[in-house]
Specification:
2 helices; 177 residues; alpha+beta
Length: 177
C-alpha cells in the first residue's frame, strides 16, 4: 500500500527552491553600485579629511611618516594642522613647521603646545612630547599668544612665532640654570 504523501510528491514533481523576488535582487545590486560609487567619489572628488587646526600625532621621520588625527585634548595630540596646500606646492610658510605629504596635499604642522605644560624631544617622530619640567632638555610653554608673530609679549621676548596661523609660544627652559 502506498503512502498518500508519497503520491502527492510524485504527482506534483520534485520540490522547487524558491527564488528571491526580483525586487530583492534589484535592491542588493543598487546597494553594491551605491557603495562603489561612494568609494569612487571619496577617492576622486571628496574633500580631504584633514582640516586646518585639527590636532594629530605623527609616527615616523621620513616621507612615509603618517599623521593620525586625534582630539586636541589627548596627550598624543602633539601637532596642529597649520596649513594645507596642494601637493604641487614646494614648501610650508617660513617657520619651524613639520612638513608631511599625502596623495593630494602638503600638510604643514605646528606644535600643539599648551600653556603650563613642559615638553621633551621625541626624536623618533620629529616631535615633542609632554614631559617632566625637571629634565635638563625640557621646554615649558608659559603662554600662547594668538593673532601675532611678535614674541615681545613673552618674558624676555623668548618665544617661537608661526605666521600661519599667527601664533607665538612663550618658552622657558626650567631645567637649565
Amino acid at each position: 500500500m502506498s503512502n498518500p504523501v508519497d503520491q502527492q510528491q510524485t504527482q506534483a514533481g520534485p520540490k522547487r527552491r524558491k527564488s528571491l523576488p526580483i525586487w530583492v535582487i534589484a535592491l542588493v545590486a543598487a546597494l553594491v553600485l551605491a557603495g562603489v560609487g561612494f568609494g569612487a567619489y571619496q577617492v576622486f572628488f571628496a574633500e580631504d579629511t584633514t582640516a586646518t587646526l585639527e590636532c594629530g600625532s605623527v609616527n615616523g621621520t621620513d616621507d612615509t611618516a603618517k599623521l593620525t588625527i586625534v582630539d586636541c585634548d589627548e596627550k598624543s595630540a602633539v601637532f596642529r594642522v597649520a596649513v594645507k596646500k596642494d601637493k604641487a606646492e614646494t614648501s610650508c610658510p617660513e617657520g619651524a613647521y613639520r612638513e608631511l605629504r599625502d596623495e593630494k596635499n602638503l600638510i604643514c604642522l605646528m606644535p600643539n603646545f599648551i600653556a603650563g605644560n613642559c615638553y621633551e624631544s621625541d626624536d623618533a617622530n620629529q616631535a615633542f612630547k609632554i614631559g617632566s619640567c625637571d629634565s635638563p632638555e625640557a621646554i615649558k610653554i608659559t603662554k600662547v599668544i594668538d593673532g601675532t608673530t611678535d614674541p615681545s609679549g613673552c618674558p624676555n621676548s623668548n618665544g617661537l612665532g608661526y605666521p600661519e596661523p599667527k601664533t607665538v609660544f612663550c618658552i622657558e627652559t626650567p631645567g637649565v640654570s
